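dumping the sequnces here before i forget
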Amino acid sequence: MNERDSFEERLRQARAREGLDKPVKGGPAPQSPWGFGLRAGVEVVSALVVGVGLGFALDRWLGTWPWLFLVFFVLGSVAGVLNVYRLFNPRPRSRARDE
Amino acid sequence: MAVEGKTIDALSQFELSPVGGVFGWAVSFSQSNLFMVIAVVLTFWLMKATADRGAMVPGRLQALGESAYEFVAGMVRDQVGDEGKKYFPFVFSIFMFVLFGNLLGMLPYAFTYTSHIMVTLTLAVVVWVAVTVIALKRHGMHFFSYFFPEGAPVWLAPIIIPVEVISYLSRMVSLSVRLFANMVAGHVMLKVFATFVVLLGGLGAIGPFVAAMPLAVNVALVGFEFLVAFLQAYVFAILTSIYLHDAVHLH
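..and the predicted 3d for all of it:
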């Protein structure tokens, strides 16, 4: 079955099936290196933003500045790398698939 | 608005101002809200026209409505599967709202409401909350196993679980920032090159010839922006479908 990791591939298939690719062929395609880079950048930055935001909020609440901020900064970076990894790696995740 | 004292003012196009006179001031009804209402009315009108006519051989308008319907229906069916059919109205509403927001912004003097992070973030939060609620309803407490892959060593749980939770939360941010950044970047570029046309056009005799270059860029950019308008609405809808797939199948 489908996996969110294979998004790019399914996007291509869906675009081909719906005939969306025709107007794209001439101009810069969304699969260009720029498009990939932009997507990856958005994924990293958004994970980092969430991590830093969570760290800030918890620090304000618990009064532990700056320790939780530092911890969540690292966790956010890891989550960003994980997001990019999932974006590029179509390998299905080893997780309960029977459901 | 484009040129004020020979400076490039690309951002004032995103400023909100109340419309509709006293009423607009009283309830802060900005042009952004106005275009949201227009988008909803247009979507409703298009779908009503499509459904009312129901001709065997569709006319142009009916073909437009039907192709939009089938496009999203096919996407939801492919991504989510048969269980996803009941979420089709949700995905379709999101898709049409974003699409009309992007496309209305291409009209002169129109306002692109999808160029405001608050609008896209609200849309993304709606999607995120809906997906989470659907997952919780379908799977109950089993939903939380999503944050810890089976087979991972238990001592890694203190690292894996926060990372997975942050990754899950970051969907909201990436979904909204992608749409917002694309729309803002496109409209800023259009405005900057349009300003070049005006500034260079004033350079005496050679002005009009030099100004033709940024004008040509702008013509190409307008075409590109139409592509981006469709593509971003599509990406928003397909990511919504993929998140729905995760919520329904949970892996």
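The interface with chain B takes residues 1-2, 4, 7, 10-11, 14, 17-18, 20, 23-24, 27-28, 30, 39, 42-43, 45-47, 49-51, 54, 72, 75-76, 78-80, 82-83, 93-97, 99 of chain A (CB under 8 Å).
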